[in-house]
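Quick one:
INPUT:
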């Protein structure tokens, strides 16, 4: 049995928010909270390098499609908590 590649979850932030000067800071805060949710779950990987460089999109990975869908739902709730508008997509 071969190991399957990780499933990527991509978050693309709405471009209409780009005029807000604090967007980059808010995206990073969101990313740090996302990392905090998954830091003790080895099957979901959120990279601080990705968070630090995030401007209009952010991605992270999960080891299974089911876990990726759950992680995407959690990300959607966090987006709402941070008053950010974005599209969350799971690559399959």
């Amino acid at each position: 049995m071969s190991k399957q590649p990780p499933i990527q979850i991509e978050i693309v932030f709405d471009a209409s928010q780009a005029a807000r000067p604090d967007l980059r800071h808010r995206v990073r805060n969101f990313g740090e909270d996302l990392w905090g949710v998954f830091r003790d779950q080895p099957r979901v990987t959120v990279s601080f390098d990705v968070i630090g460089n995030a401007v209009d999109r952010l991605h992270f990975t999960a080891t299974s499609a089911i876990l990726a869908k759950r992680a995407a739902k959690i990300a959607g709730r966090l987006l709402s908590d941070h008053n950010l508008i974005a599209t969350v997509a799971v690559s399959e």
